[in-house]
Amino acid sequence: MVLRFHAPSEQTATRLKDRFAAAQAAVAAARDRAERAVARADALRTLMRARAEHRSVGDEHGRALWADAVNEVARAAGERDRAFAVLSHELRQAVGAALTALRVSSLAPEAEMVERARGVLERQLLHLSRIVEDMIDYSRLSLHSAALRLERVPLDEVIAVAAEGVRDAAEGRGQQLSIEHAAEPVWLVADRTRLQQVFSNLLWNAVRYTPNDGAIRVALEAKEDGAVVTVSDNGRGIAADEVPIIFEPFVRGTAGEDGGLGVGLALVKQIVELHGGTIRAESAGSGLGSVFTVTLPRRAE
């Protein structure tokens, strides 16, 4: 078999070149942020060693403050290590698959093969785009630089829009997605876009972690001082030791599929708390489904 070089059109080649340039810039920016985090963590470790070697440990209050600082540095270092491992794995997979698809589209003249490679390339670039967007959102919310755009919002409508965004994926897997609305419309003073992000993330998680022919249910209940929304499924559930850390960044459940940075639920928690609300996760264990309960006040703090 002789492979013939199939040169893409000039317009297609330019578009692909621009996309890869953008992807490479995103990877470089993520690498730079990770390197700065490593430098900060190393500096803090040096400070910890110097302080530990100092003979005077201060009074009891000072020792307690120092112990808290040490624990916080250790937690941040662990988070950095998880982020590094997850980010490098996701970027390597996506970039590797995209490069392979680009080579195949250049070498294989068959239209079907080129179209298949184009599909792979588009999916991987979208995956890279989602990774970058997740990292940007998480960084902004962590640094409190993302202000809420408050308005009077119908929560029923927000949930319905989020559900429509995942309905095709759910139906494609034979899953039943149902919404149980409150007896009367529920209005909140909140950020419509951010609330939609909350329920979209919860529903996408439910679709990913629920097997084919499973069931996903959203229930909205009006309260005098706000609203309670539960997103439940009969999917793979959450292991008991993962429930306490499920909302921490860069934590990915072992019962689920690979993919993603593990910041989706951390983003959800940040957004809900910015609105003055709370979120909790419950599961009877692996394989026994999960329930996420979001409580939101009438007006964001």
List the helices and strands and how they pair.
Blueprint: H1 10-53, H2 60-107, H3 111-142, E1 151-154, H4 155-172, E2 176-180, E3 187-190, H5 192-209, E4 215-223, E5 226-233, H6 264-274, E6 278-282, E7 290-297
Parallel strand pairs: 2-4
Antiparallel strand pairs: 1-3, 4-5, 5-7, 6-7
Helix pairs in contact: 1-2, 1-3, 2-3, 3-6, 4-5, 5-6
Question: Mind explaining what this structure looks like?
Answer:
This protein is α+β, with helices and mostly antiparallel strands. It has two domains: 10-142; 151-297, 2-Layer Sandwich (Heat Shock Protein 90). 57% of the residues lie in helices and 14% in strands. The protein contains six helices and seven strands, in the order H-H-H-E-H-E-E-H-E-E-H-E-E. The protein has helices at residues 10-53, 60-107, 111-142, 155-172, 192-209, 264-274, and strands at 151-154, 176-180, 187-190, 215-223, 226-233, 278-282, 290-297. It has a five-stranded mixed beta sheet, covered by helices on one side. It has a two-stranded antiparallel sheet with strand order 1-3. A hairpin with a 7-residue loop joins strand 6 and strand 7. Helix 2 runs antiparallel to helix 3, helix 3 packs across helix 6 (264-274) and helix 4 runs parallel beside helix 5. The longest helix has 48 residues, at 60-107. It starts with 9 loop residues before the first helix and ends with a strand. 27% of the residues are buried.
